[in-house]
Amino acid sequence: MKWIKDEEFIRGNIPMTKFNIRLLTLGYLAIEEGDRLLDIGAGTGSISIEASLHGARVWAIEREAEGIELIRTNSEKFNAGVNIIYGQAPDSLPNESFNKCFIGGSGGKLEDIFLYLQKKLENNGIICGNFITLKNVTQFIQLLNKYNYKDIEVQLIQVSSMDKIGLLKGQNPIFIAKGVKKYD
User: Fold this and answer.
1) To the nearest whole number, what is the mean pLDDT of the chain?
2) Percent of the chain with pLDDT over 70
3) What single string gives the DSSP state of each residue in 24-69?
4) What is the CATH number of the domain that holds 42?
């Protein structure tokens, strides 16, 4: 199984989920052949593209024009089939059902996104989000509980990588949180 390194993606001024966090996130989502993934706040498309290359059908929504172009360019570069949506969640989200959802950015509309997922995320569907602030991860956990998601997991991941001269350079710590939608 080939994983794409960060430097292989075409980058701009749009945030990208970095390699180590991307692998953990795809693991939490348990991406496999035949999944239907909704990627909200898709940025450069790194999660969408990796998921597509691992057999998922993917819908990626991004509100920044530069991000849309980067997703398109990177999808073509890696020959990934990604349905690209230019717009804001949840207003521009498709009338589709999904069994996996990743939230990389919510534009401050987490609760509205959860309301959408009440109808569109299937039973036993997995939602996973990456957050850099305590406020956002706390709200996400509260919403997981409010909507009765099960198997909730949260981790704070700190990654440091060695540079060319041997110094470790730290990246921003990232909260990875996930839950499973289960009907009682």
Assistant:
1) 95
2) 99
3) HHHHHHT--TT-EEEEES-TTSHHHHHHHHTT-EEEEEES-HHHHH
4) 3.40.50.150
Residue 10 lies in a domain: no
Q: Is 127 helix (H, G, I), strand (E, B) or coil?
A: strand
Is residue 8 in some structural domain? Answer: no
The two three-digit tokens of residue 8, written as one number: 């292989």
What is the SS3 assignment for 137?
Answer: helix
CA 27 remoteness from chain centre: 11
Residue 109: inside a domain: yes
- Model confidence, pTM: 0.94
Number of domains the chain is built from? 1
Question: What is the C-alpha to C-alpha distance for residues 56 and 12, in angstroms, rounded to an integer?
Answer: 25
In a domain, 59, yes or no: yes
CB 44 within 8 A of CB 14: yes
Mean pLDDT, residues 107-132: 96
Q: Which domain holds residue 75?
A: 21-181
**Model pLDDT for residues 60-101, shown as the tens digit of each residue:** 999 999 999 999 999 999 999 999 999 999 999 999 999 999
Please classify residue 20 by burial: count the beta carbons closer than 10 Å to its beta carbon, then call 0-12 exposed, 13-18 middle and 19+ buried.
middle
